[in-house]
Write a structure and sequence with these properties.
The structure is a single chain. The protein is of the alpha/beta class. The protein has three domains: about 70 residues, Orthogonal Bundle (Arc Repressor Mutant, subunit A); about 130 residues, Aspartate Aminotransferase, domain 1, CATH 3.90.1150.10; about 240 residues, Aspartate Aminotransferase, domain 2 (3-Layer(aba) Sandwich). About 40% of the residues lie in helices and about 15% in strands. The strands form four sheets. Strands 3, 5, 6, 7, 8, 9, 10, 11 and 12 form a nine-stranded mixed β-sheet that branches.
Length: about 525
């Protein structure tokens, strides 16, 4: 087996090995059950260290493409070949439209809150992390209240406590983003950071570009602002950049909103090259970028540095939160703002609500300072990887073959794409009647999208099996035509070979993954 390795490439060798096998598996040139070369044989063949091969196989295993058999080696998983999960596009480009919120975000959020108070509901719809160790929280809260008692009964700076901003700066440095505490603003979760940034940067009637699908919360904010939203479809590698440039040239939008790492709802993480190209286009057309990284730290494998790390012209505002990793109720997020925009946004924060709760800031600060946060993230990643793999197995077992899904490399969600004739609202309603709550994909589009569901996999293995089994039965009941693998493959190959045309037949061309 001859694997092309570029030893001068910035792409690590273990990822080149992983990419090679991933392409073979996804194209079904390696069949389910087929054995991969042994670690020793491949390391000798490629003249690389055995640890390099082990790391490549570890990543493939984390993605659900291969599995290990004790004493026998690594084999292609049935999940990988029996379902084509990589799609050339998730939807045609959405029409240029003023954002049309239909209330589905509020309805889904309220339904999720009700579900949390009913122990018998399996909530696949929410963005909440798996449960936290309450004993650790109690100890951290007690220490933080003791250490910062003199600060808790006073007003604080609108940009947040200095100690917490210093710790966040250290956290970001580990991810390749070097910032000063004086470039950080602590917010009530990423939702407030989004609202502050968009209200500061935009005026009514301004054009904004978003990925489609995208986070439903941002669509509600844009609707309230009266912004005009351009939806650019997601491909397996991220926002279609060829289409993006066409719309940048034609409409001169004020801002691009992007989720570069563990995209919500698809779970896609863009490459370093994609990020560089996106930033280059923003620089060329003098367009701001709002980079949302709410799932920071929940990746199963290394991810590229944020787009903000490449920004030399203060075009990128970066936001994140601890709600998805610690607890939603803590309501501590932050934004990185450089240059002339920092002080006006601090003033906006002051006028909005003075500052984030000093108690919440003290607890977050203690988590970071004690090292508990790092250990907690490690546990979360291990638990979420097991849960994700369990959901992939359940989907494979229970869902009809006409349905495709993504294989996320972290985060909380995977995205399922349904045939056009499926009555998604009926599916969601009937699932809820059987105590399973799912997120209707319609909420993630600025205008009419396609039938889809977003599923949160951060549940117990038993809940995943039970919930996916119920959904599978409902989908089959609604007369899904089950197509065989070859027909799905041929359709995807046809999509992949379609050239981009700027008429009513806009489909992005798939690029190497």
């Amino acid at each position: 087996m001859k694997i092309p390795i570029d030893r001068q490439s910035l792409n690590p060798i273990y990822l080149q090995i992983r990419d090679y096998f991933s392409r073979l598996i996804q194209s079904e040139k390696l069949a389910a059950g087929q054995r991969l070369p042994s670690i020793r044989a491949l390391s000798e063949n490629l003249q690389v260290n055995k640890l390099t091969v082990i790391e490549a196989y570890r990543v493939l295993e984390a993605e659900g493409l291969i599995h290990a058999r004790q004493g026998s080696g690594y084999f292609v998983s049935s999940i990988a070949t029996s379902r084509i999960t990589l799609r050339s596009t998730f939807a045609p480009v959405q029409e240029v439209t003023i954002a049309q919120g239909d209330g589905s975000f509020l309805e889904q959020f309220t339904a999720s809150l009700h579900a949390q108070h009913q122990g018998n509901i399996i909530d696949f719809s929410s963005g909440f992390p798996s449960s936290f160790r309450i004993e650790e929280l109690q100890r951290v809260a007690k220490r933080s209240l003791s250490h910062a008692a003199d600060l808790l009964f006073r007003y604080d700076f609108p940009q947040g406590q200095l100690l917490l901003r210093q710790q966040i700066a250290q956290l970001l440095l580990q991810q390749g983003l070097e910032v000063s505490p004086e470039e950080l603003i602590v917010t009530h979760g990423s939702e407030q950071a989004l609202s502050l940034a968009l209200r500061y940067y935009l005026q009514p009637e301004d054009w904004v570009i978003v990925e489609t699908p995208t986070y439903h919360g941002v669509l509600g904010i844009l609707k309230n602002l009266g912004a005009k939203v351009i939806g650019i479809p997601m491909t397996v590698t991220g926002m279609n950049l060829e289409l993006l440039e066409q719309y940048l040239h034609s409409y001169h939008p004020k801002l691009i909103y992007t989720i570069s790492t563990l995209h919500n709802p698809t779970g896609i993480t863009t490459s370093q090259t994609h990020r560089q190209q996106l930033l280059a286009l923003a620089e060329q057309y003098e367009c701001l970028i709002l980079e949302d990284n709410a799932y920071e730290g929940l990746n199963f494998e290394p991810v590229p540095a944020p787009i903000k790390a490449l920004d030399c012209h203060d075009l990128v505002t970066y936001i994140s939160t601890f709600s998805k990793t610690l607890m939603p109720g803590l309501r501590v997020g932050y934004m990185v703002v450089t240059g002339k925009h920092y002080q006006p946004l601090v003033e906006q924060k002051l006028l909005n609500d003075l500052h984030v709760s000093t108690v919440s800031q003290a607890i977050a600060s203690e988590f970071l300072a004690s090292g508990l946060y790092r250990r907690h993230l490690g546990r979360l990643r291990t638990t979420h990887l097991q849960s994700r793999n369990a959901m992939l197995q359940a989907l494979e077992h229970h869902f009809p073959e006409a349905i495709a899904w993504t294989i996320p490399k972290g985060g909380l969600f995977l995205w399922t794409h349904l045939p056009n004739h499926i009555p998604i609202q009926t599916i969601c309603r009937e699932a809820l009647s059987q105590n399973v709550l799912v997120a209707n994909g319609a909420a993630f589009f600025p205008s009419k999208g396609y039938p889809a569901m977003r599923l949160n996999f951060s549940h117990t293995l038993e809940a995943i099996e039970q919930g996916i089994s119920i959904l599978g039965k409902l989908l089959k009941k609604h007369s899904i035509s089950i197509s065989n693998k070859s027909s799905i493959t041929s359709k995807l190959e046809k999509l992949c070979s379609t050239k981009v045309e700027l008429n009513n037949k806009i489909l992005p061309t798939i690029s190497d993954y």
